[in-house]
């Protein structure tokens, strides 16, 4: 199942961004933080690819970049500077094991049935 999202980093509220540019360590597609206060461009748009019909807790998902078609992943390499030990986050041209992500924290929202008159229910994790 595909859903479109813009993701923001927790620390500086910049958008998860990518474009056709090689990453510094592995030469894969660069992924960075971009924009201020939610402002950005189409390089900030990602599709959420669920392993099921719905995004449920503990299920694997993939993030696919809309402009380039790459999948968010970890290159397995880490930086020495500016932040020693920070892992390189990149875009891979095809889905592979390193592009699977699992929900660990967040907000779970139960969707309302189309025929139901009940309000949305949610559980905070």
UniProtKB/TrEMBL annotation:
PANTHER family referenced in this protein's UniProt entry, alphabetically: GH21273P (PTHR46809:SF2), STROMAL CELL-DERIVED FACTOR 2-LIKE PROTEIN (PTHR46809)
Keywords: Repeat, Signal
Superkingdom assignment: Eukaryota
Residues in MIR domain copies: 52-106
Source species of the chain: Ceratitis capitata (Mediterranean fruit fly)
InterPro entries: MIR_dom_sf, MIR_motif
SUPFAM superfamilies, per database record: MIR domain (SSF82109)
Protein name: (Mediterranean fruit fly) hypothetical protein
Coiled-coil regions, chain positions: none
